[in-house]
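Write out the 3D structure for:
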Amino acid sequence: MVIVLVILHVLVALFLIGVVLIQQGKSADLAAAFGGQGSQTAFGPRGAANLLTRLTTWSAIIFMLTSIGLTILLSRNSDRSVLAGHGTVTQQQQSTPKK
């Protein structure tokens, strides 16, 4: 279950990055500065913005839910500390001469 959630999380993160980079700002177009409606869009002047906004919103929601799900699953599976695998400093490491 964790592996599937991690794969979904990474795919959603990459998709979210792509969708955010595709979007233009509100006044990023030169035609928008002079009142033009941007006739070079495939979805019409406002259709692409609405579609990209919805895609961004849903991918952000899915990203947050997978983040919370991964946190809950990994906290249940692991009941030890992050530093549990590291031992104390050995005598050899303490007595090494400094140069």
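Residues 5 and 66 are 7 Å apart (CA to CA).
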